[in-house]
Amino acid sequence: MINDCYSFNIWEEEIFIPFMRITNSYNKTRSLKFEIGFSRKLCDNGVIFERETVDLKYSHNKKSVSGIMEDIKKENKYDKLKKLEEEFSTFMKSLRDFKIDKKYYVPITAKIFQLRYDIESESKKTKENELKRMNEFVDHCKKLTKEYVTEMGENAYSVFNVATAFVNNREFVKSYRYNDYQIKAGAWLKAFTKRDKNESLEEYIRDYKYLINKN
């Protein structure tokens, strides 16, 4: 659910709108759950940011929806969400200030979503399958990299957009992983902006360096 009636502007040029994802089930296997995220207004690249702050979860019971909303008001969720917006804006601005060579976009995207490819497998079949998966991922990320570098330049913000655009490709990301990947993008947003600035990008992607200059 996207709220078109509320938006906020970053750098006077990027408009973001909030969205809410509601999870529920008919057989009590999942609690009623609300997760809040942000999405660029010009596209549907979404990210769930600071999950622990906005994850509103309720077990199945006879409580009415109005009763749940009353609980939310009591816990000052609105104030927390306003703070969330401010933190999100701060992190996004710091991303654009961090310059990143485009050759690192593919390995960083793989790191964000913890994507590994067993291309050194002793099994010929496994190795062939993993190489195929890896090359498809690399090819798609390179296309996204070209698009967002042209639009936004070589910086961590355009890397972030490559990653969130990748999540929207259902050939790579199955529907049951979509929510998890948006959460990982939000976690990376915060972690990357707070990382040790003395750590080089080569060190940062050390487990994914094999993806540099593939294909």
Would you give an account of this structure?
The longest helix is centred in the middle third of the chain and has 29 residues, at 124-152. This protein is globular. The protein is 50% helix and 13% strand. The protein has helices at 51-54, 65-74, 77-97, 105-112, 124-152, 156-167, 175-193, 201-204, and strands spanning 8-10, 14-23, 32-40, 46-48, 56-58. It has two domains: 8-93, no CATH class; 99-211, no CATH class. It is an alpha+beta fold and 215 residues long.
Properties at a glance:
single chain, 215 residues, alpha+beta, 8 helices, 50% helix, 13% strand
Break the fold down into its secondary structure elements and pairings.
Blueprint: E1 8-10, E2 14-23, E3 32-40, E4 46-48, H1 51-54, E5 56-58, H2 65-74, H3 77-97, H4 105-112, H5 124-152, H6 156-167, H7 175-193, H8 201-204
Antiparallel strand pairs: 1-2, 2-3, 3-4, 3-5
Helix pairs in contact: 3-6, 3-7, 4-6, 5-6, 6-7
